[in-house]
Specification:
This protein has strands spanning 6-7, 12-13, 20-23, 27-29, 38-41, 47-50, 59-64, 72-75, 82-85, 87-91, 107-110, 118-121, 129-140, 143-152. It starts with 5 loop residues before the first strand and ends in a 9-residue tail after the last strand. The protein is mostly beta strands and 161 residues long. A hairpin with a 2-residue loop joins strand 13 (129-140) and strand 14.
Amino acid sequence: MRSDRLNESSGSFGEANQKVVNINVATYTVLAADSGTIYDLNRAAGIVITLPAAEPGLVYEFHVGTTFTGTFGIDAASSSDTLQGNILLVDKDTVGAHVASNAGATVGWSCPAAADHQIVADADTKGRFIGGMVKYQCISESKWQISGMLYGDGTLATPFT
């Protein structure tokens, strides 16, 4: 047992708990000081999140806590702070099932283009259903590495722009 990984106050293994912030307002700006936070998005009418300027080491996670009827978006602070990585999009109607083969409409990977700096889930096909999770990890002064899974409906489409 490694004692340096033991949380002395609780006697358990692991790191400190992550802070979770509920967002239920139309616009929200994330602060660099809140790196490591999980944001729970809970305003069905829509939410637009703005990230801080890209700074290596910043990490944020976004949980879709409610099904959106409006747009949920996550914007980099600048159009020069671009995205790399991918998000798995899954049709919500396949939840609880095993998809053995895929015609492209029920499960797919979305990857941002070189200049993409936003996620804009403005339609059911782009992943605005409850349960999705997206992680942003800043890897340079102009690059966010993204990963996660979103739930959509119908013929799925990329949420990146």
